[in-house]
Write a structure and sequence with these properties.
The complex is a heterotrimer of chains A (about 325), B (about 450) and C (about 290). With about 325 residues, chain A is mostly helical. Helix content of chain A is about 75%, strand content about 0%. Chain A has 14 helices and no strands. Chain A has helices spanning about 1-45, 65-70, 75-105, 110-125, 130-140, 145-155, 165, 170-195, 195-205, 210-220, 225-240, 240-245, 260-270, 275-305. With about 450 residues, chain B is an alpha/beta fold. Chain B has two domains: about 1-150 and about 330-400, Periplasmic binding protein-like II (D-Maltodextrin-Binding Protein, domain 2), CATH 3.40.190.10; about 155-330 and about 405-450, Periplasmic binding protein-like II (D-Maltodextrin-Binding Protein, domain 2, 3-Layer(aba) Sandwich). Chain B has helices at about 1-15, 40-60, 75-85, 105-110, 115-120, 130-135, 160-165, 170-180, 185-200, 220-225, 240-255, 270-275, 290-300, 305-310, 345-355, 355-365, 375, 380, 385-395, 405-425, 430-445; strands spanning about 20-30, 60-70, 95-100, 140, 145, 145-150, 155-160, 205-210, 230, 235-240, 285, 310-315, 325-330, 330-335, 400, 445-450. Chain B has a five-stranded mixed β-sheet with strand order 2-1-3-14-6, with helices on both faces. In chain B, a hairpin with a 4-residue loop joins strand 9 (about 230) and strand 10 (about 235-240). Chain B is globular and about 75 Å long. Chain C folds into two domains: about 1-60, no CATH class; about 70-280, MetI-like (MetI-like fold, Orthogonal Bundle), CATH 1.10.3720. In chain C, about 70% of the residues lie in helices and about 5% in strands. Classes of the chains: A mainly alpha (about 325), B alpha/beta (about 450), C mainly alpha (about 290). The interface of A and B includes residues 56 and 269 of A.
Chain lengths: ~325, ~450, ~290
């Protein structure tokens, strides 16, 4: 009887104190998330139904913005650019190159492997403006850029190539790809490293060459990581535009204008906030849907894994 | 005049003489962005001093204090901050400087206010001396919203020294420039001259223009006699057939005549200045502004003599023989904000800031032109040969871009078309379609598409 | 018989192994060449007045580092801009540290209604492209009068990064056994005291990670500064460099590279001294 009473007392005490503690501990974070996540999502929806411009008037126009998007002269090009950009960067770099790097760096000594992996982490750490500058230098149209310097070394006095103006999409894909590859590289590397040695030795003893081992042993075991990276990076690429902004700013003449950048330009260069919001809304919806799907497919793994030191980016 | 002024001020401030001296603070923003235009700010401060002197002499108990700011970044972020300042309730802002083309947008939105009554009130004290044409650039919907601060014109600069290298004499060059101005030589003759210079090896390029958005290229529209504004309807106009001609010319500059580089748009200003006005000089002609001269003296350290031996100028030629050339003027104006608590005082301050001597100092030091008659006889201005020559040749043929609240968007679309044309990525037909459709979609009823 | 066959196999394998390794390293070098060369250029050009083939310096100079002493024409003082960058980095770091240490603890140790929802929300928010909300965020900041203010940037950055940061800290707390807290409360301390005296010190590694990545994240921030800061005096180094690239590209690479190198100092310090952790721990937001 006495025990029961004390139990109730502690429970009651806990509740009040707990609530206050919870409020203090979680409060600031929740408030910030409300202001900068929830409110903007709602606002994006609301703004997309208006014609708001630099005057910041709430002029509701229904779905006119979306009709305008459908009839927009440039939207076809923007969509094409986005698909090309996302598709190629993902396939060739974020997945392709990442796989290549992880496979290659794990097939040599640990020291050498780590050395190269570290080199590939550098772009991700570098502030975006500086990284952009480096690519601008590589494809610089004067003879002092890297590409033109190499050409000069190989071919002597040739007319410098203005690669950036001629093939801007290639430059964009390369620039984003070199940064994006490191994400998959880390994920795949740790997965490869955790493959039991016996599997690989067994295959070696059976006379399997390196290529065979990769195809039949390693890749199948990386399926989950590849799927995860694809899902995660697709969303990331669809909505990123920082490097594009710095290197080509959508040019020349909209040839590298992707959806996210088009939104940015409309909102912050032309001050068409209502129209910009409706363009954003498409991305927001895609983002939400994709996040939820990705959550559903991978949720179990995330929740089950004891988060120690997260291997993620 | 001064007596009348004192009388007016006395009657204005008669009641406030009971208490100790009260200081009224006015906040004013000015912009260059070029450094030499700092007098836009300095003149406001000097105007306050002048005003205070008169107030003290009149025994009034009011003084004016001006808190003036000068922005040397760029137009775009200046205008963005202005918008925020307009919309922020407790931020004081009484006077704002900007190009007259922003007037339409800001007036329509209610950020700046009409000051007709004050202009009328102090008309005889100095406002009447400002060139009538300039007052046109301050009007929107028939009302006056600003006081002209300066004006400029946009000449076609030509490297005289390069022409001399090709064998032309001083007289021949002067005659050539005159022919471009009167219409005996057309735009196409300019192209030919550029090609001639390129072939002679004295320059790399025949004709350059501004690499970023602005208003200069509308001179080409004038050259082809293509209208961009319907003053009766008060709306912007896009004449597709006419535009095609302009676009064709622009396209040809880089793709057919090859006197202009394809990637000129997007080049940095430093590069443009260096290429045209630098000592080596790789470009024969530049569609620039009168203020460039002061800028180049500053940048490259030329003396007046050196730069006069290097450059000459003329109007932007017409596309048609016999039609005189044209130039665009883009007056900068001082506007009074709607939220200012002292609009009359602000207008009065602007009257003092428009003092002939103060304005002459600004004009001469930054390469702008006179805004009023009395200014022409200020010794500083009269001695400036360049200002005189520029005013004489350019101002008579000057026109302005319209004061319309959607002009910025119109401008952007035309500029995008230009970028596409010059880079070769758009054909003239495509560019016309592009511009027409985007204009229709963005400006809707605010543009007339013919 | 078997012995000789084994001997033959292992000899062949060894030989093949060396060849394979060399080939792999060569391939990796070639692929990594753009990165290696461009970062080399960054360092070399900032100290060179003349470069052969764009990358081999022939004359050395310290001239490009003048910007530390006299302002580049038309640009604000570099130290003012550096201070701004520093303020953003420090405040982001401190706020993130503070909020995530607390939130992570609560998520790890308290059972409350909505915990699961909160954890799920964090996962959703982490993968959600926050950049797509820029338009609405502009409106929010404007309403709060935080446009053109570094505080707007700081709060925004912190808000976007704490969901994942809290998750990471939760992970660190999860590793600590419950016994520690019981021991503490038995000794007479309240839960809050236990938190401050016992738990926090034990998650110092996590806090170090959060602090470093928070600082670097704030230091490198560009897009928000570019969009919301309109005053040159309030610029950070990233926006400053973008401006300089615009005006001096083709004209003065020495200046561009030296300023960029200057900007990268904290990043490089971290890179060289803590790269061990880099490959294992990475909390920075979604990039690329």
């Amino acid at each position: 009887m006495g025990l029961k009473k004390s139990k109730d007392k502690t429970k009651a005490k806990h509740s009040k104190k707990t609530i206050i503690s919870l409020l203090l501990f979680l409060g600031p974070g929740v408030i910030l998330a409300l202001i900068f996540f929830l409110a903007p999502v709602i606002l994006t929806i609301a703004l997309s139904l208006t014609d708001m411009d630099y005057r910041f008037n709430w002029d509701f126009v229904g779905f006119q913005n979306f009709i305008d998007i459908a009839h927009d002269f440039l939207i076809g090009m923007v969509i094409k650019n986005t698909l090309v950009y996302v598709g190629f960067t993902l396939a060739f770099f974020n997945i392709g190159l990442a796989l290549l790097l992880s496979l290659l760096t794990t097939s040599i000594s640990e020291r050498s492997g780590t050395f190269f992996r570290l080199i590939w982490m550098l772009p991700r750490l570098t502030p975006s403006v500086v990284y952009g500058l480096l690519w601008l230098w590589i494809f610089d149209s004067t003879r002092f850029g890297l590409l033109n310097s190499v050409r000069e070394m190989l071919f002597g006095n040739v007319e410098p190539l203005d690669f950036l103006s001629q093939h801007p999409m290639v430059v964009i894909i390369l620039a984003n790809g070199f940064v994006g590859a490191s994400f998959g590289m880390i994920l795949f590397t740790s997965a490869i490293k955790s493959i039991p040695r016996d599997y690989l030795y067994a295959a070696s003893v059976d006379g399997a060459g390196w290529f065979f081992k990769v195809r039949k042993v390693i890749l199948p075991l990386l399926k989950w990581q590849i799927l995860f990276t694809t899902a995660y990076q697709t969303l990331s690429l669809l909505t990123s535009f920082e490097y594009i902004l710095i290197i080509t700013d959508g040019g020349p003449v909209f040839s590298t204008e992707v959806w996210a950048l088009y939104t940015y330009h409309n909102a912050f260069e032309n001050f068409r906030f209502g129209f910009g919001a409706s363009l954003s809304l498409i991305l927001v919806i895609i983002g939400l849907v994709a996040s939820l799907i990705y959550l559903k497919i991978f949720k179990f793994k995330e929740m089950i894994q004891e988060p120690r030191i997260e291997v993620d980016a | 005049m001064k007596r009348a002024l004192i009388f007016v001020l006395l009657s204005l401030f008669a009641l406030s003489s009971l208490f100790a001296v009260q200081t009224i603070k006015l906040v004013a923003w000015a912009v260059g962005p070029d450094d030499p235009s700092i007098n836009r700010k300095v003149n406001l401060e000097k105007a306050a001093e002048m005003l205070n002197t008169v107030l003290e002499a009149a025994g009034a108990d009011i003084r004016v204090e001006v808190e003036a700011y000068f922005d040397s970044t760029d137009w775009s972020s200046y205008k963005q901050r202005a918008l925020i300042a307009f919309q922020t309730k407790d931020q004081q802002l009484d006077i704002i400087t900007s190009g007259h083309d922003d007037l339409g947008m800001w007036a329509k939105a209610g950020y700046v206010r009409p000051i007709d009554e004050y202009i009328q009130k102090y008309w005889d004290l100095g406002f009447n001396d400002i060139f009538p044409a300039l007052w046109e650039s301050t009007k929107f919907g028939g009302k006056i919203y600003a006081v002209p601060q300066d004006t400029e014109a946009r000449p076609l600069w030509v490297r005289k020294d390069k022409l001399k290298e090709m064998g032309y004499t001083e007289e021949e060059i002067a005659d050539m420039m005159n022919k471009f101005a009167t219409g005996e030589y057309t735009l196409y003759d300019l192209v030919k001259l550029g090609q001639e210079a390129q072939n002679a090896g004295v320059v790399k390029w025949g004709l350059w223009h501004r690499p970023k958005m602005g208003v200069d290229y509308f001179q080409l529209f004038k050259s082809f006699e293509v209208p961009i504004y319907d003053p009766e309807a008060g709306k912007l106009v896009f004449d597709q057939e006419g535009a095609k001609k302009v676009f064709q010319f622009i396209y040809d500059l880089t793709n057919t005549y090859k006197v202009t580089p394809k990637n000129l748009i997007g080049t940095e200003w430093n590069n443009v200045h260096k290429s045209f006005a630098g000592p080596e000089g790789e470009v024969l002609a530049l569609m620039g502004g009168t203020w460039n001269r002061a800028e180049w003296i500053n940048m490259f350290g030329y003396s007046d003599e050196e730069i006069d031996n290097m450059l000459t100028f003329t109007l932007t030629p017409s596309a048609y023989k016999g039609v005189p050339g044209n130039t665009l003027s883009h007056p900068v104006v001082y506007m009074v904000t709607s939220k200012s608590k002292y609009p009359e005082l602000a207008t009065l301050l602007l009257l003092f800031a428009s003092d002939p001597y103060l304005n002459a100092k600004h004009a001469v030091e930054s390469g702008h032109l006179a805004i009023r008659n009395e200014e022409l006889s200020v010794p500083l201005y009269a001695a400036d040969a360049f200002a005189k020559k520029a005013a004489a040749m350019l101002l008579p043929q000057a026109s302005f871009v319209p004061n319309n609240d959607r002009f910025n968007e119109y401008n952007r679309i035309i500029f995008d078309a230009m970028t596409g044309l010059e880079s070769g990525k758009m054909t003239p037909d495509f560019a016309v379609k592009f511009a027409a459709q985007r204009l229709k979609q963005q400006l809707k009823d605010n543009v007339i598409i013919k | 018989m078997m012995e000789s066959r084994e001997f033959k196999l292992s000899f062949f394998q060894k030989h093949g192994e060396k060849i394979k390794n060399t080939i792999v390293i060569i391939i990796l070098l070639v692929i990594s060449l753009p990165i290696i060369l461009s970062y080399l250029w960054l360092v070399l050009n900032s100290f060179a007045s003349e470069m052969k083939y764009g990358i081999i310096p022939t004359k050395f100079t310290l001239e490009h580092w003048r910007f530390l002493i006299e302002s580049v024409k038309g640009y604000p003082n570099i130290w003012q801009v550096t201070l701004n960058t520093f303020i953003v980095a420090i405040m982001v770091m401190l706020l993130e540290l503070f909020i995530t240490s607390f939130a992570g603890y609560a998520l790890s140790r308290y059972k409350f209604r909505g915990r699961k929802t909160m954890l799920l929300t964090i996962l959703v928010l982490h993968s959600f492209p926050s950049v797509s909300l820029l338009v609405a965020v502009y409106y929010v900041l404007r309403t709060l009068n935080l446009i053109n203010s570094l505080w707007g940037i700081i709060l925004l950055k912190v808000a976007l990064e704490i969901p994942w940061g809290a998750w990471i800290m939760k992970g660190f707390y999860d590793q600590l056994p419950w016994e520690i807290e019981w021991a503490g409360t038995v000794d007479g301390y309240s839960r809050i005291q236990v938190f401050f005296k016992v738990m926090l010190p034990l998650v110092r590694p996590g806090m170090a990670v959060t602090a470093i990545f928070g600082f670097l994240s704030g230091w490198s921030e560009f897009i928000f500064i570019n969009t919301f800061i309109l005053n040159q005096q309030t610029w950070t180094l990233s926006r400053y460099i973008k401006g300089v690239i615009g005006d001096f590209r083709f004209v003065d690479y020495g200046l561009l590279t030296s300023i960029s190198l200057f900007y990268m100092i904290p990043t490089l310090v971290f890179y060289f001294f803590a790269n061990k952790y880099l490959l294992q721990v990475n909390i920075t937001g979604t990039k690329g």
